[in-house]
Specification:
two-stranded antiparallel sheet, 451 residues, binds D-xylose, 45% helix, 12 strands, binds nickel (II) ion, 8-stranded parallel beta barrel, globular, TIM Barrel
C-alpha cells in the first residue's frame, strides 16, 4: 500500500473510528475525554466556547519528528519524500481534517508553508497556496471545523536567515511582504478569526553586524503595511504578535509582552495589534505563563494563547503538551477575570516527543492537553466564584480610594505637599503583610476541593 492510499477509505487514523467522546472522570479509556464536555456550562457559557481549542497544522502534520541530531521518527505517510508535492499536500490535508474532526475540537491554525508546497518562484507558491486553500474551504464546510488564525512562515527558507522584515536587504522585506499578503488573503478567504505574526528571525545573532534601531524601524513599517492590507481586504479579525525572547535568533525583538507593548506604543501601533501568548515562550523569557497573560489582560492586549509548556530542566522551546492544571488554572483565572478570550482561543502549538512515533500518539497528546485545559477552566471559574483572591486584592489597595489616594492620582497633591503632609501629620505607615502563603493556600483549597 503506498502512502497516499493508506489514507483511503479507512482514513489515516483508522484506530480512532469515531470522534473522541466525553466519557466522564471514571473512564479508563485513554481515548475519551474525562473532563472536556463541550456542552457543559461553566459560568453560564459552554466549555467549548470558553476554550475555543485549535490544533496546529505544523507540529502535528508537517513535521516528521526530526531534531538537530537525527531524522524524523514519526509514522506520517503523507510526508514521504518520494511523493509528488501537491499530492502529498492533499494527503496531509486529508489527514489533518480527519484528525480535527475526530478530536472534536472546533478550530485549527496554519502557516502558508504547512499547507502548500513551495513553487519555483513566488507566483507558483502563491498559486499552490490558493489551490490548497480552496480545498481547505471545502473541507471546512464539510466538517464544520473553523480557522482560529493563519500566519506566514518567514523563518524556514534560507532567504530569511538574517530576518524577514528586519533583513538588511529590502528585497527580502518585499518577499516577506508578498508572503504575508497572500497568507492574510488566505486567512480571510477561510474566515479566519485572527492573523498571527511571529517574528522568529526578527532579531540578531550578533550586534557586530546589526543596526538595531534601523531594523526596528523596518519591522514597524512592515506592521503598518499589514494593517493597511487588512483594511483594504476588509479583514476584521485582530492582528496578533507572538512574543518570544530567543530561538532561533540569539535575541528576538519581540522579547515578551511588555517589550512588544513598548514597541507598539513607540510606533503608534498600540490600537492595531494584540498578542498571542505562548506558555513556553513566557518561561523562556524568564516569566511565568501567568505573568505574561496577566500583563496582557491588564493592558488590554490579550489576543489568543498558544497552549504548551517547556521542561524546567531544559532551556529551549520544547513545546510539550500542557499537563499542569495548577499553572493553567491561574492563566484561565486571568482570562475569566477579563471576560474571556473574545476571538482568541487555545491553540495547541505542541510537539510530540520524538519517541512518540505512532499516529495514535497525536490523539493521546491532544486529549490530555484538552482535558488539562478543561480541568483548569473549572478550577478558574471556582476561583472567580470563591472570590478570595479578588477580595484580598481589593483590601490591599483600598487606601487608594481614600482622600489621599485620590488627590495623588488627581494631580492635586504635589511632591512638596506630600512632604508637608508627611512631616506635619507625622505619617508613619506600618508595613503590612502580603499574605502570600495564605493566598497560596486559598488557591489550593479551591483546586483541591472544588467539584
Ligand atoms: C515558534 C512559534 C510558532 C508560532 C507560529 O516558536 O511558537 O510556532 O506560533 O509561527
Ligand atoms: Ni507559537
Ligand atoms: Ni513556540
Amino acid at each position: 500500500m503506498n502512502a497516499v492510499q493508506s489514507g483511503g477509505n479507512e482514513g489515516f487514523f483508522a484506530e480512532v473510528p469515531e470522534p473522541v467522546p466525553y466519557a466522564g472522570s471514571g473512564s479508563p479509556d485513554g481515548l475519551a475525554y474525562r473532563v472536556y464536555d463541550p456542552e457543559r456550562l461553566v459560568g453560564g457559557e459552554r466549555m467549548e466556547d470558553h476554550l475555543r481549542i485549535a490544533v496546529c497544522y505544523w507540529h502535528s502534520f508537517a513535521w516528521a519528528g526530526s531534531d538537530v541530531f537525527g531524522a524524523g521518527t514519526f509514522d506520517r505517510p503523507w510526508l514521504a519524500a518520494d511523493l509528488d508535492p501537491m499530492e502529498a499536500a492533499h494527503a496531509k490535508q486529508d489527514a489533518a481534517f480527519e484528525f480535527f474532526e475526530k478530536l472534536g475540537t472546533p478550530f485549527f491554525t496554519f502557516h502558508d508553508a504547512d499547507m502548500a508546497p513551495a513553487g519555483r518562484d513566488f507566483a507558483e507558491s502563491r498559486s499552490n497556496l490558493e489551490r490548497m486553500v480552496e480545498r481547505a474551504a471545502a473541507k471546512m464546510a464539510q466538517t464544520g471545523v473553523r480557522l482560529l488564525w493563519g500566519t506566514a512562515n518567514l523563518f524556514s527558507h534560507p532567504r530569511y536567515a538574517a530576518g524577514a522584515a528586519t533583513n538588511p536587504d529590502p528585497e527580502v522585506f518585499a518577499y516577506a511582504a508578498a508572503q504575508v499578503c497572500a497568507a492574510l488573503d488566505a486567512t480571510h478567504r477561510l474566515g479566519g478569526e485572527n492573523y498571527v505574526l511571529w517574528g522568529g528571525r526578527e532579531g540578531y545573532e550578533t550586534l557586530l553586524n546589526t543596526r538595531m534601531r534601523q531594523e526596528k524601524d523596518q519591522l514597524a513599517r512592515f506592521l503598518e503595511l499589514v494593517v493597511e492590507h487588512k483594511r483594504d481586504i476588509g479583514f476584521t479579525g485582530p492582528l496578533l504578535i507572538e512574543p518570544k525572547p530567543q530561538e532561533p535568533t540569539k535575541h528576538e525583538y519581540d522579547y515578551d509582552t511588555a517589550t512588544v507593548h513598548g514597541f507598539l506604543q513607540r510606533y503608534g501601533l498600540q490600537d492595531e495589534f494584540k498578542v498571542n501568548i505562548e506558555g513556553n515562550h513566557a518561561t523562556l523569557a524568564g516569566h511565568s505563563f501567568h505573568h505574561e497573560v496577566a500583563y496582557a489582560v491588564e493592558h488590554g492586549l490579550l489576543g489568543s494563547i498558544d497552549a504548551n509548556r517547556g521542561d524546567p530542566q531544559n532551556g529551549w522551546d520544547t513545546d510539550q503538551f500542557p499537563t499542569s492544571v495548577e499553572e493553567l488554572s491561574l492563566v484561565l483565572f486571568e482570562i475569566l477575570r477579563t471576560g474571556g478570550l473574545g476571538s482568541g482561543g487555545f491553540n495547541f502549538d505542541t510537539k510530540l516527543r520524538r519517541q512518540s512515533m505512532d499516529r495514535i500518539d497525536l490523539f493521546h497528546g491532544h486529549v490530555g492537553g484538552v482535558d488539562t485545559l478543561a480541568r483548569a477552566l473549572l478550577a478558574a471559574q471556582a476561583l472567580i466564584d470563591d472570590g478570595a483572591l479578588e477580595r484580598a486584592r481589593a483590601d490591599r489597595y483600598a487606601g487608594w480610594d481614600s482622600e489621599l489616594g485620590r488627590s495623588i492620582h488627581g494631580g492635586q497633591a504635589s511632591l512638596s505637599e506630600l512632604a508637608r503632609l508627611a512631616s506635619d501629620e507625622a505619617i508613619d505607615p506600618p508595613p503590612s503583610s502580603g499574605r502570600q502563603e495564605h493566598l497560596e493556600n486559598e488557591v489550593n483549597r479551591v483546586l483541591w476541593f472544588e467539584r
